[in-house]
Design brief:
With 499 residues, this protein is an alpha/beta fold. 34% of the residues lie in helices and 22% in strands. The protein has 20 helices and 23 strands. The longest helix has 15 residues, at 202-216. Residues 1-8 have low confidence and may be disordered.
Length: 499
């Protein structure tokens, strides 16, 4: 079946995959500059793909491969606030650096500058030879004003009138004689560079199925931008009487089922907010962003982290954990080095999909506006790079992809308040692992009790490859409560080896 996963693929085999997000346009620009020749998706050096596979990633998300909109570029260049952001990110910014937003899609064809369809096919084949899957973007809520549909199928869009256009020119625009609404969500003003698709339109849903089947011929999964905007409740709240009553079925239930009918192995990942992750999972998504965990890790609220991780295991296994992506600030700019290490260990050892953003392991601090086609020059943070390398080597163990994740019990003693700063869990697979993280800025200690019933009377060696530590402990210690003492923002990632 075209688009289905192959049995040999690491991506297919991983219940809890690791995904590497690459901002494609500036990544290729950097490779080109470094090599002194133009590199597109067809000519990425094998060493680059080898390094990605060797780091342990099960899939690569090539963010921003679709054809971008000249109309969107013009809107961006005319926006003083955006231009200020561009100058802040690139000290030597010039207008030619603006290549357009990857979420202002002109067409679901690979941009010729990035290598076109042949380039994407070559990149996918290179990844597949290494067992690595390919994830691309799908933007359900809107398209660029110069997308072909705006002229050929105005019925796919939320419509307006000449009076609407006159009264609210920031909310509507005219395309080929039709007044179309600009894209928006229920909480913010309209986005000036995109037009709004009508989630309730049966004709649009049919066209989206065809589009996604075409996309599924070219990759192994999609990350769906702002997926919650297309749910019946959210869309009705955003557009009200302008779009009429909601249909009897959900947009995503209809679309995902239809795509799976022809591409049964295809993966759907939702960018999701507003506590709609569970609802989107029920509508068919394999994984949904876990922004709540990110926010709680950022705040350092260990109690909130522990409460979050006590959620239903089925729900937990279908979340995407991260400490950085292209929409969030760079982790190195908000956490500080030691806190970044601790929260990275915490996030990447949870069940579900784990997302690492290009530049995150190098400690980059500049969040690049998605409109820009090149990165600023930044020095690699050697300490963070070494930390990520060792961590990912440890997480290459199959337990973190196909094993079982369970929380560990933490207990203190009278007068010990620091236990509140700790969180602990374990993995049980071909090997066993115990993870304890101090999410506070003080030394913390506690007893950590594993949920395993078969360890009593046996001896174990606890090895933390990320911190070069090893301890001899009995199974009774693990069962009754292993004493752990950790400095601020420290952790243990113990491999449990039987002696």
């Amino acid at each position: 079946m075209v688009g289905a996963r192959t049995a040999a693929s690491r991506w297919a085999a991983a219940d809890h995959p690791f995904v590497y997000e690459i901002n494609t346009w500036p990544w290729l620009a950097g490779l080109s500059e470094g090599s002194g020749r133009r590199i597109d998706l067809a000519s990425v050096p094998d060493a680059e793909w080898d390094a990605i596979a060797a780091a342990g990633y099960d899939a690569v998300w090539l963010m921003g491969v679709w054809e971008r909109s000249p109309a969107g570029v013009a809107v961006a260049l005319a926006n003083p606030g955006l231009v200020d952001d561009f100058r802040a990110a690139l000290p030597d910014y010039v207008p030619g650096d603006v290549v357009g937003s990857p979420y202002c899609v002109r067409d679901y064809r690979v941009d010729p500058i990035l290598g076109g369809p042949a380039g994407l096919a070559a990149a996918r084949a290179a990844l597949a030879r290494r067992g690595v899957g390919l994830v691309l973007d799908f933007v359900p809520n809107h398209v660029a004003p110069d997308h072909p549909w705006t002229r050929s199928h105005p019925e796919y869009f939320v419509r307006g009138t000449a009076d609407d256009l006159g009264a609210e020119p920031a909310a509507f625009l005219e395309v080929a004689g039709s007044v179309l609404a600009r894209g928006r969500d229920p909480y913010f003003p309209p986005w000036p560079d995109v037009v709004q698709l009508d989630a309730f339109s049966p004709a649009l849903r049919s066209a989206v199925v065809d589009t996604l089947r075409s996309v599924a011929d070219r990759c192994d999964g999609v990350r769906c931008d702002m997926a919650m905007l297309m749910t019946n409740d959210t869309f009705a709240r955003t557009w009200g009487s302008r779009v009429g009553d909601p249909p009897g079925d959900e947009y995503w239930t209809t679309v995902i089922a239809a795509v799976h009918a022809t591409h049964p192995g295809f993966t759907f990942i939702a960018e999701a907010y507003w506590d709609l992750e569970w609802s989107l999972q029920q509508q068919g998504f394999d994984f949904c962003y876990d922004k709540r965990l990110y926010d709680r890790l950022r705040s350092g609220d260990a109690a909130a982290v522990r409460a979050h991780l006590r959620g239903d295991p089925v729900y937990q296994r279908r979340l995407v954990r991260f400490v950085e992506n292209h929409d969030e600030p760079r982790a190195a700019s908000v956490f500080g080095r030691e806190k970044q290490k601790a929260v990275t260990v915490a996030a990447l050892t949870q069940p579900g999909a784990r997302l690492v953003h290009h530049g995150q392991p190098a400690g980059r601090t500049v969040r690049l506006p998605v409109f820009l086609g090149r990165f600023p020059t930044e020095e690699t943070d050697a300490d963070l790079a070494a930390f990520h390398r060792v961590l990912l080597e440890a997480l290459a163990d199959s337990a973190f992809r196909t094993g079982t994740h369970r929380l560990c019990e933490l207990s203190g003693w009278p007068g010990n308040e620091t236990v509140a700063d700790l969180a602990a869990w374990c993995w049980d697979g071909d090997r066993r692992w115990v993870v304890v993280v101090n999410l506070g800025d003080r030394e913390a200690c506690a007893h950590v009790r594993v949920p395993w019933t078969d360890v009593r009377g046996r001896g174990f060696r606890l090895v933390d490859p990320t911190r070069d530590l090893a301890y001899e402990r009995s199974g009774d210690d693990l069962s009754d409560g292993l004493y752990v003492e950790l400095g601020p923002w420290q952790w243990h990632l113990f491999r449990v080896d039987e002696e």
